Amino acid sequence: MDEIVKENTSNFIHDFIDEDLKEGVYTKVQTRFPPEPNGYLHIGHAKAICINFATAAKYGGTCNLRLDDTNPTKEDVEYVESIKEDIKWLGFNWDNLYFASDYFDFIHECAIKLIELDKAYVDELSADEIREYRGTLTEPGKESPYRNRPKEESLDLFRRMTAGEFPNGAMVLRAKIDMASPNLNMRDPVIYRIAHVHHHRTGDKWCVYPMYDFAHPLSDAKEGVTHSLCSLEFENHRPLYDWFLRELSIPTPPRQIEFARLNLNYCLTSKRKCLKLVTDNILSGWDDPRMATLCGMRRRGYPAAAIRDFCDRIGVSKAYSVVDYGLLEACVRDNLNANAPRAMAVLRPLKVIIDNYPEDKTEKITVEVHPDKPELGTKEMTFSREIYVEQDDFMAEPVKKYFRLFPGNEVRLKGAYFVKCESYETDENGKVTCLHCTYDPLSKGGESPDGRKVKGTLHWVSAADCIKAEVRLYDRLFNAENPSDESKGSFTENLNPDSLTVLEDCLIEGGLKDAKPGDTFQFMRQGYYCVDKDSAPDRLVFNRTVALNSSWKK
Question: Does the annotation count 36 as an active-site position?
């Protein structure tokens, strides 16, 4: 991980940490990334991952992965494994792997201690009544009639809750703080609820589970976290975080620091809404390349280094902002331009017959693997009398400044010869089906011995060794900049009907026949493409990762 941490970078989080270390509040730095395993990680999580792991690395500290498995009704081992895979793919390694359930005994003991301190009580109000009693932003809440029950009675009821004597929803354990607090989070929040449900790690040991706001600070403290870095929506929860640690006399409590979450336009990161896209078969799965999930971006061909670069470019701040998706694409494009080997692919093929080329002849054409990386060497492509070019590279009646193929015009075939269009064939509907050209045998390599110039250079594949492939052209999933804005309709009403175009009869240079899922190439003049997991030995499938130039428009 060290090689991806920029030692000279700093931000307001690091300023706080510098201050804490200077004043001796902490002698080390320990962070953690604590996702709930109830869905797949998305691009917003990438920012939090980068901040937590890079901060620990900068100070020579540790960063743990902790799965917040306090809500077993929504959690699954599938999500646990996907989270671990995504973090490793992104380029980070945790020092320790923990689960909030590792601390259930400790958290339960803390709840009992709060009751003994008369700082918590068992409440028998219904969920609706608790909500009603809570008050509003402009009106104080009112105390529950159970708020001042003797602590001995609350201890007994909490023991019986834990033993499974009561059904779900019968009662909860609440912290006793201040029902008139201007911060609604401090108005006697629920810290334990009854849930008779099987847990994927603890089985049926527990039927009461801590709420996130209670489990989180205690898990941080038990683990030895010094700086709890989280997104800005938890800023109003910080007084509660600190209250629990203070009332329970936690030594050297962690410090919570908030940063602005990543908001990316034209994207959806709500787990609930993403799940609907999957369960309603709108998308093929959590790793659909149109998803903002990390596994979807990986499948689409986004390099992990590009995502880290993106997170570095947007920086760390406390100000709310929306980042344009075009910046993420630019990071991906920059990375692939520097690293992806070049290849030729004709997505919408048009046959070309070179009439003066010998019918039984083929020859090898040498082309560079990458124009800026000579160390990658060269490769050979087969050239023959029959080749294919893009349909868009021919016009029977060319428009102004069209320098590709049209009757009487000469172009350069990349790495091969000059060819001149002589005529073309059409079908009964007038569609062009075949071009007839002649070539200059002295122009091999794309240079003419007499110094004449041509303005067009085309990519091509040979009929002698090209292979068929399916190519999937991806575009943004939503037409609305904020697809969750319900004032503009349901998010499903904002779907882009052209987010996926499938081309089934593409032709790819024969040298790619052994390409494996995850391999990425620049298709010359087309864009960057990645081999998809749906590929079979006899039929490759490519996903368009990003176009050569930005076509992103608001």
Answer: yes
